[in-house]
Amino acid sequence: MVSAALWGGLASISLLIGALMGIYLKIPKIYIAFIMAFGTGILIGAATFDLLLHALHESGIVLAGISFLIGALVFTIVEVMLNKKGGSDRKRSKKNPTGHSGMAIYAGTLLDAIPESIIIGVSLLSNSHVNWLFVVAIFISNLPESLSSSVGLKLDHYSNRKILGLWTSVVIVSSICSLIGYVFLKNASEQFLTSIGAFGAGALISMVCTTMLPEAFEESGPIVGFITSLGLIFSLFLTQI
């Protein structure tokens, strides 16, 4: 049980690392975009090679497909709501022209982090050991997210203490969600657990397509396709370890 919280926190600690880098270092946007593209590839790989395929084998194509699409739909609906409040720029390293977007950015980050963390807890139940591919995927993808967002929040005149406080709270919430996923689904069937994984995979794919890939392409251009492909192959390599 404790391990679920620890792994959830470890996967999300890169949010705090990225925030510190965004606040105190001046990293060219193109390098941030490269990391984001690589993390996107890993997340796509984790969602498909691990979560979705596992659900397919345990639950069948119909239940896996429906769970995946429901996850994508739920994320999309919430994303549309957050976009109207300024949350669409949560991964952008620019000043928000509408202002007052801080809490929407925070809510959007939680939207990304919560399903990821729950899946970590679920993976411990399903596999009896941590899913390394998923932990690595979340860790790498979180780094450019908080780095880029922290730069944008600074431009919106948020203090360093407030920015670090926001990201620290996300790490804590991630640990709690991973623990919740482990505790409350402890007696769930394997079929239900894999369906939850497929649901999370749908949310992840929607997230990277609407937030991470557009930012990466905007800052680095067509090369983002190749770097994302490298991340995808890296995730395939991790499945063989």
UniProtKB/TrEMBL annotation:
Keywords: Cell membrane, Membrane, Transmembrane, Transmembrane helix, Zinc
Family note: Belongs to the ZIP transporter (TC 2.A.5) family.
Residue spans crossing the bilayer: 6-25, 30-49, 61-82, 103-126, 163-185, 191-213, 220-238
Residue runs in coiled coils: none
Membrane topology type: Multi-pass membrane protein
Listed name of the protein: ZIP family zinc transporter
Record localization: Cell membrane
